[in-house]
Each structure stands twice: as structure tokens, then as C-alpha cells.
């Protein structure tokens, strides 16, 4: 597309004047011998109007960037940096030396970054355009930051052939990341993935299709970004006119998720508390580049937009969300784009043990992992497709769509969930390690199947009698040579029975206390085995004086539970007055310590913990053969494993405690702040008491604060549940997550989660959803309606 002649002449005139505009601005000169030191908050060089600054910016707790940023808006947005791959500690110094260097040194004097200009430079200056320059003695530019791109371009800045923007690694990690925006030497402008550690074998996921015609990318003063040919004619428009730079601050950035976005910020709102973040100039989906990165990235040898075994789903804010399918967790919860790993042992290829009965399929609509298939079948049924994948130990996922069946190998890549994909993905998951679906009877079924297999093999052999004689002889010899009996295993399950002395030795005399409550104290221990397996030993204090048989029956019921979001019971001790339970050890402690500790956990971790807790409660309420009411859901009873996955503890203990401790029929059971109202009234206690407690816990996770804070500045904010409803009713939900940028970025999702929590804490138990419905609402399978005032039930009584 070419411009009309008058516009073309005006455009060429503007292009010719760009260097003049850049260089003719008044500036506050930085003289030779000047320096800045990291740690000094007021140590920077500002542009004449004060809109841009050059100096040090602290990045979390990691160190400092030598950077250029917007200096007049609340969010000091960085647009350029010298040391993005090598943060420096406090005390580092940048100096414009008199002997011909512009150098960044760490506190020990090590050189981190430099520009060596000899004796030709007279001074440096931060210009109003956002360009930092070194000026020669003849007033010409010797060096300018505009020529050394990072991830951002500004008005009046250009990109030449072979130049590129390289996205940062993550939102808070400014080092080079996984995507780049490149004007290739052949004139084609592309968005592409980066192959680490080299920029070779890159996969383009958007192209201007301007081979042999693209010459330069221009970001003009009117806010338009476009590609021009060598003769100055426009060959491709990248963004439309967003408004004059006189009224707006503007920037275009290739963000860490691989999408190029153009932002504007009204200069008139620099002091407005209502505008905290940059609104986007592009308002419609079609103007994003690319429009849907979840679908557009298809790498032949890479993991796609979100990494191996994960899938990408476009959010309400048009940003890609990286998620794990059921049965999988993030490799690194702090970097979800690294992909996911299975939580279970994959299917054995041993023909003698095919394990087909040990797996099931979790269906996912409108989901696919292209390019991971190794077999394709046509004109088949879904049942045929399931069986084909189940019988194939190499098959991790099957895709069924319109009579076609694709088998996918591990790891799967380029995952995406979108309504345009269609069909159904069938995720193969091992039953005894899954995050949902299997019942408590699965472990029985597994043991029963194994016994049948072994028994059949023995009975079919002619050596069966000889084998029996051999085993009998072995047992006689073993008993005569071993005075100490083995720890018995409870029949039908893998619970081990320990002696009190064994657990006293494992805990080093109950030395290291992990926590204590009204009815038990928990100690860290190490089982006596080759791998020194760490455990948590719970010493029960206030026990019901029941028979050994009754205690064993209750422990057996707890031991039959098996779910990804429950703490697994490993064994027990029932010896005289000593009653102890042995659980797997959770390395990251309780949610209480994690949530209310020194630093705030990120939004995505908190919501992942909320969903995991909901799934665990759903299992206890509806999927286990013996329905279990926990009665004491609170942050202290949600533990976190190595990958910060939520694991519910202390379930099933109500029947093991004294009546005055449990009060499951006549009194209150639970913890203040989390107790459902029906405990105080003549109303039957049901699973809905756990739903109420979860609702309070959910609000704590959303807002990252305790349910009751006596020290709150405003009396209306002391009780979180009441304050949350007031904020929801007044459309002021941002007050609940003030200063939490991640949550503010997820405003619609945050509102949905608050609505779910408000349904959970309804005073009328019949209005509360089941935990199954809570999970469905959180996952987006069920719409969330407007919740009523939670206390309306009280006022009507």
C-alpha cells in the first residue's frame, strides 16, 4: 500500500527532520567525571522535561539495572537497559570518565558494561525523547541508546534491517527471553521464537510478508508504527494512529509472552490514583500481533507458547495463560512457560504387566497438541480411540475429532485450548496418582488385580507345589534366624504398623517439633531405610478410649484415601496408651506460613493452591467410598509439597478425638474465623461446613490477608468476609488487592473468584454450592451467578 503524494511528501519531510528533532532538544548535560551509584534513590540523570531518567532501578531482591525509564508516572516503566542479562548489586557505579569511557563497574571494580569513546566525547545527555546520547566535541552524536534495542521502542525511534527487539524472560526478569521481533536482512519483519543459547533455528509465528521490500520500522510522533520501503513508501502498517505524543506517553514492547503490544498513558493523568497501569492503545483482538499466540505458535522442535505438556488458553484480557492438564504440575511454578511434568509413573511397556487397568482418561474439550502425533486413524469411534491409546504404552494423549483419532507421544507440545480447535483431548493418567476421578476403591482394585495376575501365573505352572515347599522352608529358616518381627502391613492397603520405640528413634526422641494443636503434636522424623525417607509423626493426645479394633478401623478409613491434594497417611502406632500417625513430610510447610509470611506469594501460586484445595475437598465429599467431613479447613491444615501443591491434612481425625474436642453433633468443631454458622444453631452439620470454611480460606488467598485483622486501619476492613462483600457490592474490588499488580491485571478472574467465595460463605447452608460445583466454577465449566448478601439468612431469622 502506498501513500497519496501530499501525504508522502509530508512523511518524507518528517523522516528527514527526525534526526534534527532528536539532536536539537535542549538537554541537561552530564559532564565528564560524573557518576551514579546504585542504592541512592535520587541518583539519576533526568531529561529536561523530567519525563525520562537514566540511572539505576532495583529489580526485586535480585539487584540493579542500569536503565532508562518513564519518570513522571507512578509506574517507573523501564524502556532500555544496559545490563539486562547481568544485574549488579548495590554500590555499583556508572561513570563518564575523563579518560574516554562510559563504564559500569560492580562494587569490587569488575567491569560489567562499557562504551569506549576515547577522547572525542564532550558530554552525555538524557533527551526528552527517551534517548540517552554521548555527544562529540563537534556536537554530533557518537553513541545513542536508540541504536541498541532491548524489548521496547519509543516514538521517533526506528528499527533498521537486522535489528531486533528481544523480549524479557519473564515479567520481572529482564534478561533475554524466548521471543524476538526482527527486521530481517531480506526485508521481512517477523515475530519468532528464540533458540537457546543461539539465535538459530528460530520458528516464526507472525510475518509481514515483505521480503525484498521492507527497509525500516518507524514509530512516528503521531503514534503510528509501520514498515517502509527504501524509497520511503509504507509497505505495512503495524499499529494505527493512537494519538499525538504531545498528549500521551507511548511505547511498543515485545512482552515476555511473545506478543507485541502498543501502550499509551495520558500525560494529564500522571498524578491520578485511578490510573496505575498503562492502558493498551489497541482495543480490538485483530490488532494484536499475533491475534492469538496460543494458536499461532507451532514449533516443530519446541514446546510452543507454554512449554512441553502444558496448554495455552487465551484469557479475558487477551493474554495467554499457561496451564497444566489434570495429572500434571508445573516444572517450575515461578516460570509456568517452562511446561509441565506428570505426577505419575508412566505406563509400563512390559508385556507381562500391561497395566491397562491402572489408567483412565481425563477428557478436555477443544484442546490439542499439534505435531506430537505418531499415528493417525480415520473413521473411528471415540471408544476405539480410547482403547487404542490405552493399549499403547507410548501413547500419552489421544485426540478424537470428527471420526479421526491421533495418538500423541510424550512429551506433547504446542498445546492450546480454544473453541476453534474442536474435538476432545483424552489425557492418559495413572489412577493411583491422579488429581481427580478415581475412587477410594482403586487401591483395592489394584491389589486385587495384582493378586489375580500372580495367582494365575503360579497356578498355571507345573512347579506350583515345589514353590510352596520352597516358601515354607524359607519361612522356617527366616523365623529361626530373625528374632525381631517385621513391621506388619495392614491388609488390603499399604499402611505400616510401627512400634512406639521405632517412632521415638525415627524422631530422635521427639526432638524436632513441626507444630502442635489442641489434640496433637507433630514431629519431624526419618524412617530407618536406605533412602532415609522423611516423615511427619503426629502424636495424638486426647484420644477416645476405644478398643484397638475401633482405632484400627478409623485409621484404615483414613489410609484408603488417595488423592493428589491430600497428605498421604503412611502408617500408625497403636501400642498401649500411645497412638501415633505417620504421614509423608511436606517440605514447604503450611499455607499459613506461606501466605502470611514476610513476602507475598504471587497471584498464580495462590490461585493454584485454592484450586488444589477445592479438588481435595471434592474428593473427600463426593469421590471417596466413605464420605469425610473435614470440619477444620484453615491455612494451618493446608500443607505444601515440593512443588507448592496444596495438600489437605488432618482429614478423618474427628472420630479419633475426645467428644469435647470434636463436638461433631452437639457442639463446635473447628477454628474461630472459619467455623460455619450452623455450629451455633440447631441445624444439622453436613459437608457444607467445609464449603463455608473453604470460602473464607479462598478470600484469604485472593486478598493475601487474614480473615480477621484487629489492627486494620479501617474498622470496616477488620472482618474480611464483610469487607469483601462491601467491595463487591460497591464495585471496588481493587481495594481488596491493593498494590498486587498481578491480581489487578486479572480483574475479571479476581471478581469471579470473589463471587465464588461469597457463595461459599452464605449463612444458609442450602445456598452454598457443593465442592464439586465450586471446582467447576473455578475451572470455568459452570457460570458464576451474582451472589446475595451472605448474612441475609441471619437477618431473615
UniProtKB/TrEMBL annotation:
Keywords: ATP-binding, Disulfide bond, EGF-like domain, Glycoprotein, Kinase, Lectin, Membrane, Nucleotide-binding, Receptor, Serine/threonine-protein kinase, Signal, Transferase, Transmembrane, Transmembrane helix. GO terms for molecular function: ATP binding; carbohydrate binding; protein serine/threonine kinase activity. It is an enzyme of class 2 (transferase). Residues 1-24 form the signal peptide. GO terms for cellular component: membrane. The chain crosses the membrane at residues 451-478. InterPro entries: Bulb-type_lectin_dom, Bulb-type_lectin_dom_sf, G-type_lectin_kinases/EP1-like, Kinase-like_dom_sf, Prot_kinase_dom, Protein_kinase_ATP_BS, SRK-like_kinase. This is Receptor-like serine/threonine-protein kinase. The lineage of its organism: Eukaryota, Viridiplantae, Streptophyta, Embryophyta, Tracheophyta.
